[in-house]
Amino acid sequence: xxxxxxxxxxxxxxxxxxxxxxxxxxxxxxxxxxxxxxxxxxxxxxxxxxxxxxxxxxxxxxxxxxxxxxxxxxxxxxxxxxxxxxxxxxxxxxxxxxxxxxxxxxxxxxxxxxxxxxxxxxxxxxxxxxxxxxxxxxxxxxxxxxxxxxxxxxxxxxxxxxxxxxxxxxxxxxxxxxxxxxxxxxxxxxxxxxxxxxxxxxxxxxxxxxxxxxxxxxxxxxxxxxxxxxxxxxxxxxxxxxxxxxxxxxxxxxxxxxxxxxxxxxxxxxxxxxxxxxxxxxxxxxxxxxxxxxxxxxxxxxxxxxxxxxxxxxxxxxxxxxxxxxxxxxxxxx
Length: 334
Description:
Structural class: alpha/beta
CATH architecture of the largest domain: 3-Layer(aba) Sandwich
Largest sheet: 7 strands, parallel
Domain Glycosyltransferase subfamily 4-like N-terminal: 12-135
InterPro entries: Glyco_trans_4-like_N (IPR028098)
Protein name: Glycosyltransferase involved in cell wall biosynthesis
Family: Belongs to the glycosyltransferase group 1 family. Glycosyltransferase 4 subfamily.
Number of helices: 13
GO molecular function: glycosyltransferase activity
């Protein structure tokens, strides 16, 4: 089977990484896969090339140009399936045959008309979690997955190091986390990420929140999950919005890093309903209590927790698990 996979952006983000993993899964299943991107010099194209994937850039100059050229190019393609990763390519190719519309985030109110058009005529509408299954009738849930990440080897001494991984934003719970840590003087915050795609007014609010713990915060910028995990004792993922999946959660599970999540969106679905370190979204006191609970765990208790997380990753969120789900999705279309 010949499969075209269309990117949402030229820059690497969550949906772009999942598109590349999906393309690799298609190739491993014996299919011919081509990744369509705005330009052949962007981040996504370079990463696809590094992974040995076939790349097709459309020479776009901006979003409107990309959508026009993507529609024209994929309409002429002889591929058996067009798999659109994100709202932009799904909207651009609305109505084309043999099409998968993969929606990674719950649409905001102003995006709902675009989503309605984007899903028109799709052979499958794919979402990353059951918590998002209500965005359209007959959605197909395809959990994300991630590549294996080695367990950290460093044994930390001194204050408990609490990690944060991803876009710096208030909806991701950064304000709740700084509120919690402000009540825990024997902790430090290790930030991996930047306020990419965040408007300037929210950036000021983020900086005000970080000022509360600035004297014990280490800001790493954009680094790999592995680089962060080598520096921390526990990862906090405390979003206050309806998190559609939680990629950093499964990365921590792969590496066997202790993890605290909020109950927002899909996070409970990813960790399992009975996960003990799940707190109410937006509740800084509960988050602080969970951080203290991690600090009080014995070595044996920590090992038991991380073994449990890694086993769940291996069963549900490893490349093997992802490849099986891709095969099942493609089988639906044949």
